[in-house]
Amino acid sequence: MKYYQPSITLGLFTLLLFIPVLAYAQQLSGVNQLTFHNAKSNHAFIGNAFLLQYRDKVYALTVKHVLLEANVPDMQSVSIKDHIAQWQISANNADHAPIILGKLLNEDRSEKLDMAVLEKDWLVFEVPQQPTFLTPLLLRRTPIAAGEMLTAVGCTYLNQASCLQDTYAGAFLNKENNNLRVKMANMEPTKLRGLSGSPVVDEHMQLVGIVSNVMKSKSADGFDFAPASTDYLVEVLDRLTANTKE
């Protein structure tokens, strides 16, 4: 387990522990499968990903720090085209055709690949094909009230042999910088490695964040769940749609 400051990344290294609740009928998330030009770096499961419908387009989303977990020494920035031959979202433990992703739309060679990516922890991809097994989510645009229940939907490395998509719920506390602080029962960050990139939704299945991080609790010992908010994501999507109109 690796710890990082000022908060503790749960990404693919360490994660929160909360109790699985009933699964959704619709498939909302899948696992990232990465094929590198150098096959020694291939990953069959490296975090989760999902789809979002924004205006009239569907995008694929996951976290930037999955690139850190890939641990490719010569990949030093948020730029993948020289390293990754194919990125796909696959259904874990289900026989569905994978979703092959297109261009990384917020690729940035000037953005250094280090723990600072947690401040803007979203990767946004084109989806050139018709989605095969995932239901695209819609974005919530209204503020979250304290006490609202939020749910992460995805799989971990620990349960990958049986998981299709598990759900993990907690109560929203407050927004803090780029993160949502959520209270989870019995938080044990070591036990849910791999959940990063999973969508975090409200009770109406609207997207409010992405599994990214944990923070030290302010009210007790232990940690709070700290998914990345959608602020940076909206900036990227609005920029993309504005460019399309020009």
TrEMBL record:
SUPFAM superfamilies, sorted: Trypsin-like serine proteases
Superkingdom of the source species: Bacteria
Pfam families (alphabetical): Trypsin
Every Peptidase S1 domain range: 59-220
Residues making up the signal peptide according to the UniProt record: none
InterPro entries xrefs: Peptidase_S1_PA, Trypsin_dom
This protein's name: Peptidase S1 domain-containing protein
Natural source organism: Bowmanella denitrificans
